[in-house]
Protein: NAD(P)/FAD-dependent oxidoreductase
Organism: Rhodococcus olei
Amino acid sequence: MTQTLDPVSSGATGDVAVSSGATGDVAVRAGAGTPQQRVDAWLAAFETALAARDVEAAAGLFATDSFWRDLVAFTWNIKTVEGRDGIADMLWSRLGDTDPSGFRTTEEPTEADGVVSAWISFETAAGRGEGHLRLTEEGAWTLLTTLQELAGHEEGKGMRRPRGAEHGADPGRVTWSERREIEERELGHTVQPYVVIVGGGQGGIALGARMRQLGVPTLVLDKHDRPGDQWRKRYKSLCLHDPVWYDHLPYLPFPDNWPVFAPKDKIGDWLEMYTKVMEVPYWSKTTCTSASYDETSGEWTVEVVRDGEPITLRPRQLVLATGMSGKANIPSFPGMERFRGDQHHSSAHPGPDAYAGRKAVVIGANNSAHDICGALWEHGADVTMVQRSSTHIVKSDSLMELGLGDLYSERAVAAGMTTHKADLTFASLPYRIMHEFQIPVYDAIRERDRDFYDRLEKVGFDLDFGDDGSGLFMKYLRRGSGYYIDVGAAELVANGDVALAHGNVRELTETSVILEDGTELEADVVVYATGYGSMNGWAADLMGQEVADKVGKCWGLGSDTTKDPGPWEGEQRNMWKPTRQEGLWFHGGNLHQSRHYSLYLALQLKARYEGIPTPVYGLQEVHHLS
Ligand SMILES: Cc1cc2nc3c(=O)[nH]c(=O)nc-3n(C[C@H](O)[C@H](O)[C@H](O)COP(=O)(O)OP(=O)(O)OC[C@H]3O[C@@H](n4cnc5c(N)ncnc54)[C@H](O)[C@@H]3O)c2cc1C
């Protein structure tokens, strides 16, 4: 997905002198001195104001248009506050408990286009944090603060790695594998997990690995026979659309010989290997059938069936990692029951082999529709794609070069970019202004691939670049749909090899699909590539509609663009953060998000496990139910 480092405007408006009532006058001439001096002066003034609990002075160090994005460090939430008033409100509520200190740069700040950028670290009462600061002449433009570890509960890694061997002679020695066997025997039976994660795809596995590292008894459950089956069972031509540099899991990056776009079975095998190597407690062949929360005891009753055996689990925290692209939207068209050919949702598509020489109609024009049309065409099917609304298409090469290249590429690695730094760089861009960074990238892509887009439009393909021209990644964050990263199938549409039809389906007959304008498409197979529903649909299935409505829609930013209704939320709804249902969490997204946000979710869960107070600032309102 798309990230760029170039700001379009600094919002610079001139020098500002900030007076700190509690600590005497501190003049922060943000425009004077080297980038290092300017950042040092700002951080010193900020720390002085915070230490004096002088909220007005601290907020005054920010520019009028400014953003403070906090990942758990101050807010025990994932929250962006905007402008001096928003910042002051958060600090009034959270400054005392957070007790931040020790703000310092971790490398030399840089300056570009009037914006000074700095990597910072700091401490809070609860732990250690890292962050990023962008300064203009008016003060702080963006500030990112993230909690990286809880003091006293650091992970056993690096200098703290476990010894493994217990040297010496011990007649009562219990070996590593014996200890693992005991753990496996007890967890979920005589020992209750503190956290149950329903869904053992990449999301559940990554979070499970982090929970294990943090020493929180956690169980990951999945319906499938083996970890990785989520990918193995998808259609056979599927490869990741995101490149390897974007896809690493926590702790264990892919090796240097890993393909740029991993085929789905290879990803499946990696997930299985990862689960084993990271010792993620994982129950395969286990379906969660229901869950209910007892407000008084603060405990969930989670009913599962493990390989035919019903088991009741009683965790205090329940995470749904059941897949953002997991709950299939299956349309209901008149006549579906009389259609004599094969018909299935894209998630159940078996692949093209059975359809050589057959007529295939694929309903939808996004990622899955394109992939499936391409594979069917390659196997000699006669394929028609039915497009109902516009789609954003971006060529994979262009995306890699112009979108991702600065952060996630071999070029970025060669320039010293680490996955951690790339993730934090991306996290440092507040969602409110992210589209401004994206629009120029997609303008450049449109120019570079003009001929391709012209040809697509010439065959009648309804193309868009997002409501505001901000392209793929904003569409992904806002609605999680409406795009295709072109790895070849769009060419087939552009050159007419895959036929294109438009409009809604009116009905199916025994042998065809009829569109609203009367167009009849003969079909031996109909694939409904009609997308996926909001993750709170999983909550409805397992806990009832009342709980689903209590937490509301998952995903989306409230951007008031197509399929992402306002009001503005500032962060993705319900993801990786406290919800309106105590003890219920949602985790998911692409591999990048699974990797990065699993840390913040894990730290929130660990803090609760250890009884560390976690007062949440700005628990989100529910504006939409699905
Ligand atoms: C064409 C295509 C290309 C894609 N390309 C990429 C890409 O390049 N990069 C990327 O990151 N993503 C890509 N995706 C999206 C990918 O599907 C998701 O990112 C990924 O599957 C999300 O992982 P997850 O762990 O959140 O959910 P899933 O992989 O969907 O796993 C959820 C798991 O929950 C389990 N589950 C659900 N309900 C229950 C229950 N009641 N009890 C027990 N288990 C349950 C399911 O069995 C499933 O295994 C692509 C998708 C498609 C269709």
In short: Confidence is low (pLDDT under 50) at residues 1-27. The pocket of flavin-adenine dinucleotide is lined by residues 198-204, 221-224, 230, 238, 240-242, 287-288, 321-326, 367-368, 371, 588, 590-591 (CB under 6 Å). The chain has three domains: 16-150, 175-326+535-609, 336-528.
